Amino acid sequence: MWHKFMPIYRRELKSYFTSPTGYIAAAMFLFLSGLFFYGIMENFSELSGNAEYRKQVGLDHVNFTQHAVKQLYWSINFLLLFIVPIFTMRLIAEEKKSGTFELLTSLPFTDWNIVIAKYLAAYTLVAGMLLITVYYIPVMARFGQPDMSVVWVAFLGTLFVAAAYVAVGLFASSLTENQITAAIFAFVALLGLFLIGDVTTPTGQGIGRTLERLSMRWHSEQFTQGVLRLEDAAYFTIIVIIFLFLTCRCLELRRWRV
Amino acid sequence: MIRVENLTKEFGEIKAVDGLSFEVNEGEILGFLGPNGAGKTTTMRILTCFFPPTAGRASIAGFDVLTDSHEVRRRIGYMPEGVPLYRELTVISALDFIAQAKGFKRAQRAKYIDMAIDETGLGGMRNRIVGHLSKGYRQRMGLAQAILGEPKVLILDEPTVGLDPRQISEVRAMIRGMAGRRTVILSTHILPEVQMTCSRVLIINNGRIAASGTTEKLTTQMRSGSRSAALIAGPPASVLAALRSIERIISVEAKHDGVKSVSQQSTSFDVTEYMIRTTGSAAEIHPRIAEVIVGQGWKLIELRHVGLSLEEIFLKIVAGEPPQNGAADSGQEEAGNVA
């Protein structure tokens, strides 16, 4: 079973490490999230040390977990909307363009083998990149008193969010032969899914509420607030399954295109 | 080994492949010949399970491409058009990927990779990045991927496109060397390639078989009636008339660019080259021509048999000129007129 996925998985990882795109995307992500982290930490120190400033922004007291941790992971989740498409854009688009897709399909793999192996390879990279941000946690613990359970839930949430993003990105990559187009598709789709709850005023009822509950933003905010709920984890898992399924269908289109 | 029955593939209105049937026996090298857009790649894609046929069946080693695609794909090596490769990998890791994909264990993989590298002469390139290889070596790389793990059937789509003449002959020699050991289908629109590498040819045009048979047989069949060139010194109009009156000569043309004015000792005649198409063989016709020309007092300077080249046969078939003596049905009978 496993040997059906491993060849493609390993090859994808090798390709990532031999082309500059992955490094550039990871560097961009780490730089920007580091910048956010720095800004958030500095803002918090300003808030906690300056009563006048606190009054200006209308806060009586500040809470490190509320202000720093939540903002940091929200920013990371948002930043990933832009970064993940760069990781996923080449996955299928490039193979279609260079013709290796035809070679790949002539090997004894099923479409599911291809899709899942590619998905896991891209996710491994994105998750690896996220693991690097773990060093923020001791830094936060050194300069504040974060509620560690909130931190870990928020971080776990980011891993779930990234999993969904990668699936959407993989699907976008299967739609076209052009990597840039794939990245744009992925970004637009992700942004749409992220913000779908914001198209109406959240009224707490009716269609507005339904759309809010469907949005990735709402579910990811549960994690960043430190709320660990099965339904949020299930939401992102279902997104993964749906988009992997759609990717498979899309690869199959070659068989039925008339 | 490969059996194709009534294969049809439609893309909307267009029938890319239209009722194709053929068989390839074990160890045979079949040349798939046709102009661009004839349906060669489509047929190969069906055989490699890229997409299913609209109608008809195809099977490799007894496994149907539709229902047993997994088994089919374990038994084939495929080099798609344009030799797509994973350019960012090294030669050895790209080959290892293919070997893993084909499901070989570690020890077997090493053995098969060495065999493929030896056969294709990639020895010195093991650790080079595929994308940095020259075109010729990339082509070898494509072949190495295809032959990796000794598949029973090789499917090569235009294996020599874009190579320089020396590389072309190397690749052809490589393919020729596979005769008997492997069953190969290769596609090309280059005729000499087929003559040089294949044991059998299938000419396809507009998705249909236009002709098939061994290269010798095809050539012979299409040479139904032969062609001769004669260099005759005599008044062209009279010579033409005289030649045309000879039995079994279909047509005679004076080649005007072949006119040389030669003054001979006594008389001065224009020497003209005539192209003569006949239904008989040279052995029957040439003596008659000589007799007539000499009888008239003209001078027969040269008389030679000119066969149709495979190129001409191909054009004839593709242009829709019906081949005589039934070359289209790979019939058993040999054409009568062997020149």
Strand residue percentage of chain B? 25-35%
Distance between the termini of chain B: 35 Å
**Number of strand segments of chain B:** 14
Q: What do we call the CATH topology of the largest domain in chain B? A: Rossmann fold
- Using only C-alpha atoms, the radius of gyration of chain B works out to 26 Å
The tally of structural domains of chain B comes to: 2
Average pLDDT over all residues of chain A: 91
* Computed CA radius of gyration of chain A, to the nearest angstrom: 20 Å
Determine the fraction of residues in helical runs of chain B and give it as a percent range: 25-40%
> What would the principal axes of the Cα set say about the shape of chain A?
globular
Number of domains of chain A: 1
Low-confidence stretches of chain B: 322-339
Structural class of chain A: mainly alpha
| Spans of at least 5 consecutive residues with low confidence of chain A | none
Helicity range of the residues of chain A?
A: over 70%
* Number of strand elements of chain A: 0
Oligomer: heterodimer
CATH superfamily of the largest domain in chain B: P-loop containing nucleotide triphosphate hydrolases
Number of helices of chain B: 11
